[in-house]
Structures are given as C-alpha cells and as structure tokens.
Specification:
The protein is mainly α and 162 residues long. Helices cover 81% and strands 0% of the residues. The protein has one domain. The protein contains 6 helices and no strands. It is elongated and about 65 Å long.
Length: 162
C-alpha cells in the first residue's frame, strides 16, 4: 500500500511543472491512503497540513509571477498573458518528454506576456522587459510549487511509515 502511495506521489510531482494539479493529487492520494489503509497511520491533521501547503503554493504561483511581471514594468495584461501562455505552453510542450513541458511553460509565459504588453501599446523593449520578468517569475513560482510538492510528498511518506 505504501509503495502505491509513493508511486502516485512521484507521478503527481512530475505533473506540477507542466501546470497540472499534481499537488492536489498528492493531497487526494493522502486521503485515499488514510481511508484504505487497514490501520490509519496518520490523522486528518496531516491531510489538513498538506492541503494548507497546497493552498499556499497555489497562491504563491499567481502572486510571484504577477509580482515579477510588475517589477519588470509589465501591466496586468502582461501578467494575465504570462499565466495563460504558461499553461498553453506547458500543454504544447508535453510531447517532448520530461523537459518539454517546463520549456513550453516558460516560453509560453514569455510569449503571453509579450503579447499582453504589446496590446497596451508599450514599446518593443518595454514589452520584452515585461516578458522577461514574467518568465523569471514563472520559473521561480514553478520552483516554489515543486518544492511545496516535495514537502507534501515527504510529509505523507514519513507519516505513513512512522
């Protein structure tokens, strides 16, 4: 049973960089393990803690990317363009194994922010600067979300084993 939990957690961790809700799959796997285990190795407080980490990571995903876009002179359109472009880029990059979705998400964030900023009438240099900020923000947000996923996975495995 624990091996299956670890397998699901590993797959879920791989889903996070491509913009899919891998961290929520981890929380769901924890709930399923808690229900299906013959003897409950941990309580609902572990699930609540994991859900809290997931919620904070989701909020950080939006806030960090938007902040970096603004920090580099981008508008809210650039921030939204980066968000939408990142999701679309991640999906387009899926056919290239492992790294394709990450590259697609970053490239999509850049293109989305660039188009969003162009739509406000900003110069080419200003739009490129905003798109660079959006891409940096997306990369940092992605790294933070993967780190949060690692924390959730480690917590669930440790709680299941102890």
């Amino acid at each position: 049973m624990i091996v299956l939990l670890i397998l699901v957690l590993c797959v879920a961790l791989l889903l996070i960089p491509i913009g899919l809700p891998g961290i929520w799959l981890m929380v769901a796997a924890g709930v399923a393990f808690l229900w299906l285990a013959p003897v409950a190795p941990f309580g609902w407080w572990v699930i609540a803690g994991c859900a809290a980490i997931a919620l904070v990571s989701e909020a950080l995903d939006f806030v960090v990317a938007a902040r970096y876009t603004k920090k580099y002179g981008g508008s809210s359109r650039a921030a939204w363009g980066a968000l939408i472009g990142g999701v679309v880029g991640a999906m387009v990059g899926v056919p290239m194994p492992i790294i394709g979705s990450v590259i697609g998400a970053l490239a999509g964030s850049f293109v989305g922010a660039l188009l969003g900023e162009y739509s406000t009438g900003t110069s080419r240099d200003g739009a490129a600067r905003a798109a660079t900020g959006a891409t940096i923000g997306r990369a940092i947000a992605m790294a933070l979300k993967v780190a949060a996923g690692c924390i959730v996975a480690a917590w669930l495995v440790a709680a299941a084993l102890l």
